[in-house]
Write a structure and sequence with these properties.
The protein is an alpha/beta fold. The chain has a single domain, classed as Rossmann fold, CATH 3.40.50. It is built from 4 helices and 3 strands, in the order ααβαββα. α3 links the parallel β1 and β2. The relative contact order is 0.16.
């Protein structure tokens, strides 16, 4: 038995999902992104997902009905992101948005990022 088949057999035996995390994130986005939402993507890079995880056209369709997609990153390729409404060069720990700005996004990172995202997404 080769390693690939063995890995799949072991994963099935212990009920382990081998789906790549980028694909899982794409599926979650498809479930939660709603028309009219104001979406903040912290650490967005130059695309929402790699095109192998979700086709570019599928990403465009997902973003089309949102009210706003703002991306925040220090990656200079931020300017190349084809789907952003707004591009902000910066770090997640010091987001340049008003308090209680309605947002949606996946936030991960140090405590400062969580505090900053809570500040702008909370109503009080």
């Amino acid at each position: 038995m080769n390693w690939g088949k063995g890995k799949v057999a072991i994963a099935r035996a212990i009920h382990l999902d081998l789906t790549h995390p980028q694909v899982l994130y794409g599926r979650a986005l498809q479930r939660y992104v709603q028309p009219g939402v104001r979406w903040l993507d912290v650490g967005c890079g130059y695309q929402i997902l790699p095109f192998w995880a979700m086709a570019e056209e599928a990403q465009r369709e997902m973003v089309r009905p949102v009210a706003m997609l703002a991306g925040v990153d220090v990656d200079e390729r931020l300017k190349d992101h084809p789907l952003l409404t707004y591009r902000v060069e910066g770090l997640g720990g010091s987001l340049p948005f008003r308090d209680a700005t309605p947002t949606f996004g996946g936030f991960c990172g140090p405590a400062g990022v969580f505090c900053s995202t809570r500040r702008i997404s909370s109503s009080g």
